Task: structure prediction
Amino acid sequence: MPGYAVIDTETTGFGATDRVIEVGVVLLNDRLVHEGEWSTLINPGRGPGPTEVHGITSADLIGAPAFKDMVNDLMDVIAGRTLVGHNLKFDIRMLGYELTRCGMPGLPDGLCTLKIAGGTLTVACKAAGVQIVNKHRALGDARATAELFRYHWSGMTSESKRLAM
Result:
């Protein structure tokens, strides 16, 4: 089994016309062992949105690829893996908007640590003793989510895991 792709995005906002400006992925094998990481900034062709939240500025995005120019790399990284995220529906939805613009199908659902752990990423990580480094940056949040997933998943029963999927 290929394992898991723990994914997080940073965006210009929350709607269908907003854009993904950063993607971070942490790869875990089927035993939840860290196998690698991948991340990229993405130039949305407009302003970065809430810089006060994610800290990404227009200057940071100069020279970053457009989504259509990096989408195949992203798809290669996550291929065959179960997606994991904190509030995964948001990330899947935002990536789905981008994929639609590229004429590609959306992503399958996966495992959501919000459902498993409850609360915001900050609250869930604090309860599990997981430190978030580079909060509200895609790779930083993906790393924290991977640790949160590992913490909860290894202690869940088979039935609880089935229900979480």
The radius of gyration is 15 Å. The chain has a mean pLDDT of 95. Helices lie at 51-54, 58-61, 67-78, 88-101, 113-117, 121-128, 138-153, 158-164. The domain at 4-164 is CATH 3.30.420.10 (Nucleotidyltransferase; domain 5).
